[in-house]
Amino acid sequence: MVLTAVEIARGVRAGQLDPVQVTENALARIAAADPVVGAFRRVRAEQARAEAAEIAARPDLARLPLAGVPVAVKDVTAVAGEFAAWGSIAGPHAPATADGVIAARLRAAGAVLVGLTRVPELCIFPMTDDPDGVARNPREPAFSAGGSSGGSAAAVAAGLVPIAHGTDGLGSIRLPAAMCGLVGLKPGRGVVREPEEGWFGMSVHGPIATTPADAALLLSVLAERPEWAAVTEPGPQRIAVSTQVPFTHAPLPRPLGAAVAQAAGLLETAGHSIADATPKYPLSTLTAMLARWFAGPAVQAVDEGFDLARLQPRTRTHVRVGKVTARWVRESSRVKWLSIAEAFFAEHDVLMTPALGTLPPKARRWHRRGWPAAALPATRVAGFTGMWNLAGYPAITVPIGRHPSYDLATCVQLVAAPGGEPLLLGLAAALEAANPWPRTV
């Protein structure tokens, strides 16, 4: 069993584990499994070895929260000496001269950046593949690892690294975490501070892990909130439960609803109050999300100098539409949804839903398909996630059960009001204690 990030950091700080050997072990696992899993766009083998040696020699080693922990970084953020490809051959490929805020925080905490994980082009779809590979669910390789943080989820679920960085614009942490049976936390807006917000404030950075404790540790570093590293089970909470697919009211696969019922029973036994309740999802919320989903990548492609003629056909379609919808992005639509969400969370502390609207998509060369072929499964599987990006509320996915026909996890999503990240992690830890899940393959 691969050690958790908490266990590795504790062992390195105590002098019981060597950061160089920990890194060598991770690189060996990557070399053995990644040709099948497809998690990494780039493995930084030599650089990681050098970083591990530097960490071992640091005078502040005993105070580093991520001392010697191998971490995978989503291929969307600046890492010194590397370029962020964003899943595309069309973007600028000049290496970064300095770390961005995410890599800088990870390094300062003592992490070893072992590689950059695969993403779909411009992170548009919740299925991860590019011309060089497909990110697969390590337990069921016929299924996608999800997206857009699919490479990060595949790396953690396969035990290649204990934790990984991801970003979430409409579910891009929670969806792959749920597909791969992991804990994936989307922090609230502004919790992980950075110079610019992606997708008009909907996209945020967050952790993917096998345990709530590891997710809390990584979040504490990314958010520069060291007090969040300690997970505590909260007192009794008012938990609303809803399995109604927002907007479409599409039928929910029975195993996904069963996971919600199981989790609700576990939390009720733990002393929390459970009530069936569904927020009112106005159509304006859906149109506001879609406008930003199209416009965010379009603005990025233009502003960051992507060669639009070299984008994948489905991405070119998305960008063309996004240039039009950018003028429709209005703060008023978000404010209307916020007023509804605030009223709902005045009566409930937490909302529990399924994490996915459908089973995960199959692992395919989705980038070769047209826009409608990719968009239909994307919007169906992501039915429960995107509105919380628009609201800026924190949300987490937690494994609960197993699908009866496939080796796939069934997971729930927990949502809280702003500032509720510790609450969500505490509830996730309570579910883990009552119902332990397999950490890796």
UniProtKB/TrEMBL annotation:
InterPro entries documented for this protein: Amidase (IPR000120), Amidase_dom (IPR023631), AS_sf (IPR036928)
A single GO molecular function term of this UniProt record: catalytic activity
SUPFAM superfamilies documented for this protein: Amidase signature (AS) enzymes
PANTHER family, sorted: GLUTAMYL-TRNA(GLN) AMIDOTRANSFERASE SUBUNIT A, MITOCHONDRIAL, TRANSAMIDASE
One Pfam match: Amidase
Family: Belongs to the amidase family.
The protein's name: Amidase
Organism for this UniProt entry: Amycolatopsis panacis
Domain Amidase: residue ranges: 22-425
